[in-house]
Amino acid sequence: MGGILGHTSNAKQRRAVGSLQFQTSEAGGAIPLIYGTTKVSPNLVDYDDFRATPSKQAGGKGKGGGGGKGGGQQYMYSASFIMGICQGPIAGFGMAWWDKNIGTVAGLPSISSINLGADGQAVDGYWASVHPAKAVSYSGTVNIVFANYQLGNTATLPNFTFEVIGIGAGVSRASPNGYDANPAYIISDFLTNPRYGANFPLANLDPAMTSSAAFSYASYCAALGLFLSPLLDQQQEAQQSLAEITQVTNSAIVWSGALLKIIPYGDHSVTNAFTVASFTGAPTQGGGDTISLTFTDPALQGGAPYTVTYTTLPYLQMPGAMAGLAQAVNSDPNLVRFGILASGVGLAGVMIIQSSPTGNTMIGQSGGGGIAAAGIGTTTTNSFAPNTTPVYSLGEDDYIVQESSVGINGGAMPGGPALRAGGTPVTGGFADDPLHIVRSTPADANNMIEVECLDRQNNYNTTIAEAFDQGSIDRYGVRRDTSTKARLITDPLYVGGMVAQLLLQRHLLYRNTYTFQLGWKYILLEPMDLVQITDSRLGASALTVRITAVEEDDEGMLSITAEDFFGPYSPTVLYPPANLPPAASPSILGIGGGTATPTVKQASGAGVGGFVPNWSAAPGNVNAPLIFEPPAALLSGDLEIWIALSGGPSWGGAQVWISSDGNSYAFAGTVSGAATQGILTAGIGNTGGNPDTTDNCSVDLTESRGQLLSVSTTDAANLVTLCYMGGELFAYQTAGLTSAYHYSLTTLYRGVYGTTAGSHPAGTQFARIDQSVGRFPYPNTLVGQTIYLKFLSFNIVGGALQNLAEVLPYTYTTTGAGKASVSTTVSGSFTGTATANEVVQRYVFAGTAKFPVGLAGSQGTPGVAATASTTYAIQKNGADVGSMIFAAAATTATFTMPSATTFMTGDVLTVVAPSTPDATLANLAWTFIGSS
User: Fold this and answer.
1) For residues 523-550, average pLDDT
2) Is 24 a member of any domain?
């Protein structure tokens, strides 16, 4: 009955939770080691002060009009705890994620102290005062201490994750973005750090790896922008961690001479400039904030400021806005062709990466809405120059070949070409070839590489960076490799794409494997060395390859495995073959390494070395270069300038430097070896036949010491002997030598690839078009502009490079001859009669357009004919370039344009009435015809 009167309640009393629930607390686990900047989950190392406090708010009633069951007692929970995070010392913290909240670590509630993991760091003040018996400093371990953290009505710790700016971020040669670390620093610290390293002796680590030398591993990673942020939180062998880093940085681990070396596979020189554009604020919640980057360079879009913009989406956070602007840069074809890419930089920045920087690029920025520009940082330029000198040049007398028993009894020695050619089981000789080449099929090569990495701009969620070869896919179908898990990459826009491309190139291009055996005199060879190999039966003549493995058997014979080397290489080797007489009766692995004509092993001296190159021999200047632009039929899309170069007897090639203003020059590439170039010694006409069997092309190739060969009728018709003279491309069948370096070319296929066959006077420049001609792409924005070229010669052994100050520039005005012609029309009309000097049309060009002499093909008509001849001026940016003329009573217009006129993006075409217009001429319409 008491219950009916209300002295007791039918509501169930909720019990307070008696202990704290948390996400993870692991004993005996690895303390995470973080390089660069990445996201990590902490580990609970201690907690106390757990309290359940009854809430003053009563429970609510049940549904319906009656009283129902009353609500039970609510509790609010709190606790103090210490979160262990990683090895220290670190640079600091960035973002924090807990449950569904995002903020900064500094903005977390109830923080007592943030300890960055210094050795001997102080004990937290709250823990020392309230819980002195278990107050520990956790020296060397990064931790965050929370005092009486309010957990709400659940006794569960939030699921914390923290962005840690870890070891190596911001140190020397690290990423200019301030977040990622240089892999060379990572490996050095990981192996040798006395507290948390792999106990690897510092004396056994190659000091060149982290040096500032242009060929070092640190320079390679810095130049390519291969900066990483690995999180090492699992127990695994140190070599596995090293292998993961070297795989994504396109490098190999080599143990040599008691030193651990990291050697890049990179085979070309690289220079990149890195600049960070910072922003501040936060995107407007509804979106619509427009931010931009502006690039100004004389070589980009005619020097006019070039702007890319990005407009934020609703509910986008600041890192996402930075990623969006970076993606806008990477999606702009003009910037990509110019060598500019970008990636997001943490909370509020975009890093701009410019390859082969001109030194003239100015970068600007603008904000919008809730985002404001915060400034452009200092540009960091990093360069890499690979070692391209072969160690040895190996010939057919250097290889070890398996002999037959008959051959040994006959006194035959391995290596001799004649013995290999004539050896049989009966006559004696050798049972194997000296050089083996295995080539994988292109159908087995992966043509799409996917790299799984983290995306810092998207809360470190996993994403895929990919690279693919469309030509291979079209031919063989998609062959996808998804095996690369690279969560040490946190920048998928740039680093992820770069890594995927490097992996793709190794899959598709490095398909030859070379194997051969050598004697112990070559014991100094090691993986990643370059050697030249020759075997006439395989068509290999001084072919430069890179050694990938060296195995030594118990008798000292070396089994060498090598791969292709595609970079430019020095024409001389480090250790030339010695010029010494053969020793008597060498053993198969003894003196001379088992060659048919071995070299006596002795101390170095005047008679030991072979040819010693003169590295300082002056190369001399280039001969007058032949510079021209090929037609579109010879190109694959981009416009190109082709340059034929040669020089004197010591000339080995030249670096090509280009400038748009004649003051600041940028490296464009290298031309190695002389082109076959010269001049016409007699004029040549054009009889109209094709093949032209009447006219002869007489050439003098003395300046390049060139040679020309005759070919078959089929090869000539297929343009195998393609040549250039005075704007005309042609091929020949017969090359008759008339005197030293003088030839008479007959049976000519004239005016090929869309060029015009014409007459050319004596003295016209001539060149044979082959691989020795340098090819240099350029953007459409340079069409019609004058460029300056300097050719820095080097000698035949790659030495004595000239400097920019000692050579004179050559000028060339680009024509865009290689651009496929597309018709461009500008149409206009005007109703009524124009007044004096009235602008009847104003047209702004969105792209490049070229109008021919006389505006050929253009049309104009009046609705009412003129009484007297009337001339309308056609202007480019306010200057007269042509005219449109309506003669008296004429029903069509005529046009003038003294020279072909090119309008670039942003140029303005205007049509202006005369100062004294005709009173009857009215209702005009016109169309100007050009090409783009």
Assistant:
1) 89
2) no
